[in-house]
């Protein structure tokens, strides 16, 4: 999520011990845990309220689905799949001309 390795985490812990002291670190860790718990609860409540307000059609709504990058990626992938399916269908409709068969000609196209 934050792309922090073990080395960076050790440096952060060392700096935290130097700045706050070993006696205050447990209380700060508890406060950080409570803050993360409240933030997660807030996000879940917001998601549940959105689901309730939008109705049953959006019962599977997730907050990450509202990320613009996710929306664009989803639509691009769907468009590519549709184009591929359409091309496959067109290829199936095409067949080689039989010997002596005249190719189709559209007078309005030229």
Summarize this structure as a short list of keywords or feature phrases.
single chain, 110 residues, mainly alpha, 2 domains, 65% helix
Explained architecture:
By secondary structure, the protein is mainly alpha-helical. It folds into two domains: 1-60; 62-93. Helix content is 65%, strand content 0%. The longest helix is centred in the middle third of the chain and has 30 residues, at 25-54. The protein is elongated and about 95 Å long.
Low-pLDDT segments: none
Distance between the termini: 58 Å
The total number of structural domains is 2
Number of strands: 0
The helix-and-strand class reads mainly alpha
Principal-axes geometry comes out as elongated
> Roughly how many Å is the radius of gyration?
29 Å
Count up the helices: 3
**In percent terms, what proportion of residues is strand?**
under 5%
Order of helices and strands: HHH
Sheet with the most strands, sense and barrel status: none
Report the average pLDDT across residues.
83
Helix percent band: 55-70%
Characterize this entry briefly.
With 110 residues, this protein is mainly α. The chain is built from 3 helices and no strands.
